[in-house]
Amino acid sequence: RWLFDQAVCTLYAFCGVLFGLSSLASLTVLSTVCCLKVCYPAYGRCWDVRFSHGHAMGLLLAVWAYALAFAATPLARWGSYGPEPYGTACCITWEPSSKEAMLYILALLICCYLLPCLLILASYALILWTVWASQRALRRH
Hints:
It is found in: Membrane. By secondary structure, this protein is mainly alpha-helical. It has helices spanning 6-39, 53-72, 99-140, and strands spanning 81-83, 90-92. The radius of gyration is 20 Å and the shape is elongated. 68% of the residues lie in helices and 4% in strands. It has a two-stranded antiparallel ribbon with strand order 1-2. The chain contains 3 helices and 2 strands. Helix 1 (6-39) packs antiparallel against helix 2 (53-72) and helix 1 runs parallel beside helix 3 (99-140). The chain has a single domain (6-139), classed as Rhopdopsin 7-helix transmembrane proteins (Up-down Bundle), CATH 1.20.1070.10.
């Protein structure tokens, strides 16, 4: 069973959601940047823009803001945190108690799971296709 009070349960769940979402968002950003660098090497050269330390910091800030926005919404009563069904840990309350809770779960599914996964898959598929097309062009010459 969960050994602590509701405040610790909420903090535990908040940290789990925050770090989980930031991890998936970081992987999404990395795959997208890799895709731009491999598939569109001339991207940014038109305006003499290079990927810099400032760009990386901006992307990191965006990743953490994105994760914080979705992790903090249950604290503002859009969704909720509570004990898991077995009662040994805490996470998002997946059993919707209201229409708002159902919308939060749906928003998590779409914005925090499906969209990042599709972006990662599309990025790596485009990288593979670009490498395959490059090898094919080399064989022709």
